[in-house]
Amino acid sequence: MPTHKILFAASEAHPLIKTGGLGDVAGSLPIALQAQRQEVCLIMPAYHDLIIRAGKLTRIHPMLAGFPKGVRLLEGTLPNSKIKLWLVDAPDYFNRPGNPYLNPQGTDWPDNAQRFALFSRVVAAVAMNKAGLAWQPDIVHCNDWQCGLIPALLSLEATRPATVFTVHNLAYQGLFPAETFAALNLPASLWTTDSLEFYGQVSFIKGGLAHADMISTVSPTYAQEIRTPAYGCGLEGLLNHRAERLTGILNGADYTQWDPQHDTLIPYHYNAQSLQNKAANKAALQTRVGLPVAADIPVFAIISRLVEQKGIDLLLGSLPELLHHKIQFIMLGNGEPRLESAFSTLAAQHPTQVATQIGFNEELAHLIESGADLFVMPSLFEPCGLNQIYSLRYGTVPIVRRTGGLADTVVDATAETLKNRTATGIVFNEATPPALLTAFERALALYQKPALWQQVVGTGMKQDFSWKHSAKKYLAVYEQAIAWKEKDTKM
Ligand code: ADP
């Protein structure tokens, strides 16, 4: 593969700032690309909390021409890597503590359109070598709606880098009222239904979907699903129109952080040959969350944003029945207040069976992966999902709904897959509480058969979803993007 210069733009990246899977991807894919001998620079907004964690940063002079006063670039390194990091420092837009997208009340910042339009404009300026960096990429890899305007802006340039737009979740689109379009001072030619207009509103994600040279999403199944009305969020027509440029590449897992053999956040390291240490982590987990320490009681767990997408209502609908069995359930998550309080109520009603931890806690997430027996992901849709992939490596058997990346990563335990030793979890179809309950009961029946259970755990732990395979697939997508760009700009 030739070496390309890649500008990787994202609104979050672990360990600098993370709210979900996008953060994991943006923190690890650039490193995996660099390992494939690519020259990668990561560009992100300089949020308040990010600057605190970023270590040594240098200011790049001068201020950016053509941008509001005070907007400049900072340069550093993505922690624990050799990836060059550029931060768009615009204090009026990004110097706010907490979540990058939400205010302390949990609702969107009212100026999110302005914030991510500014970010996109600066990235486009860097991509066109107009930011005083003496560097121009061949590829600009944009992620989710926050970066959607980048391919749209670059499409107006005669000589430009190729663009790739990755959809991590089509349900988040960056939709704003039509007046916002005028307020953002965007080129008038972008206000068409072939571009940013979406039923009278401005859609940031459409900037990526309509203008990028290649579009990818984070699993092959989700790439198919989003072309249908059930999953396409009204964008299925556009996605079908551009189907030859749409592909699905499964997210990788960063096994330097998510492997029980060397995870620095868990008390006891283990592998498939030393599962007694997993049992020790289970006891530590039970103690930590205040449940009775009992080796023989299966511990079910979920770590999730508490939003409708994650199938939390299915879970809440089936848990009362599941709790009739001798089991424990641990929930770590935060999100919609009604869902948070439903779990708190359940924990209060079943103090010896249910533990609820409201909040975002990286260290507890690792302890749960290492100590639980079963991991539940009943998502209504799931672009890729990472926790089921982590669960496999931790010997924590996943129970998932057959959708998106969940369908692509977990093999249901059936008579046949148990016989040919490919089973890695429990997969169910219908998005209903009874279907989830049946899946729970199948999981419990398997748990009661130690030899088969060990086999499923062992097969899961052997699965390899490392970034290397996926990074190579992205390289192929970059080649396709370059070829499309050359074809399109000749026309
Ligand atoms: P999504 O991006 O839709 O939230 P993913 O499964 O792709 O879902 O990624 C979620 C990531 O965020 C995982 O690394 C998961 O462990 C982490 N995560 C989600 N909620 C929490 C939480 N409350 N505390 C710690 N980590 C969390």
Would you mind describing this structure in some detail?
With 491 residues, the chain is an alpha/beta fold. It has 2 domains: 5-252 and 468-490, Rossmann fold (3-Layer(aba) Sandwich), CATH 3.40.50.2000; 276-464, Glycogen Phosphorylase B (Rossmann fold, 3-Layer(aba) Sandwich). Helix 1 (21-35) packs across helix 19, helix 10 packs across helix 13 and helix 11 (312-322) crosses helix 17 (433-447). The strands form 3 sheets. Strands 3-4-5-2-1-6-7-11-12 form a 9-stranded mixed β-sheet, with helices on both faces. Strands 15-14-13-16-17-18 form a 6-stranded parallel β-sheet, sandwiched between helices. It has 19 helices and 18 strands. Helices cover 39% and strands 17% of the residues. The protein is globular, with a radius of gyration of 23 Å. It binds adenosine-5'-diphosphate (ADP). Adenosine-5'-diphosphate binds at residues 20-21, 24, 303-305, 332-334, 360-362, 365, 384-387.
